[in-house]
């Protein structure tokens, strides 16, 4: 069974940076789509970014474009989310999710229903 472990969350001041990591184990397919989602208190979980692991195709929510960068390290089964110029509204629990057997590698879609494995989440707090 695929397992995901997130790390890298914490407390940072507005304008600061954090790097989240998602390490996966138990792969059963050669094709994956990995996404980052976040959920703030009282709000629905929303897509932040995703990457198709074979093609490297990426996608970003409008709210994070130009500030966040997703990247993959296939050799170490890890996906990173570099978050720069953080804002208080970025405060949330960030979740890593994986869709196994994603053969449409030309696309990356941040729809919760497409992902079948989820991590436990890591807290990101942006506050002065």
What descriptive keywords fit this protein?
mainly beta, 128 residues, seven-stranded mixed β-sheet, globular
Structure description:
With about 130 residues, the protein is mainly beta. The protein is about 0% helix and about 50% strand. It has strands spanning about 5, 10, 20-25, 30-40, 45-50, 60, 70-75, 80-85, 90-100, 115-120, 120-125. β7 (about 70-75) and β8 (about 80-85) form a beta hairpin. The mean pLDDT is about 95.
Summary of the model, kept short:
The protein is mainly beta and 128 residues long. It has strands spanning 3-7, 10-12, 18-25, 32-39, 46-52, 58-60, 68-73, 78-83, 92-100, 117-118, 122-126. Strands 2, 4, 5, 6, 9, 10 and 11 form a seven-stranded mixed β-sheet that branches. Strands 1-3-8-7 form a four-stranded antiparallel β-sheet, with no helix packed on it.
> What string, H for helix and E for strand, traces the elements in order?
EEEEEEEEEEE
**How far is it from the N-terminal to the C-terminal residue, by CA?**
40 Å
Give helix % range: under 10%
Report the sheet-strand fraction: over 45%
Query: How would the global form be characterised?
Result: globular
State the secondary-structure class.
Answer: mainly beta
Number of strand elements: 11
Averaging pLDDT over every residue, what do you get?
A: 94
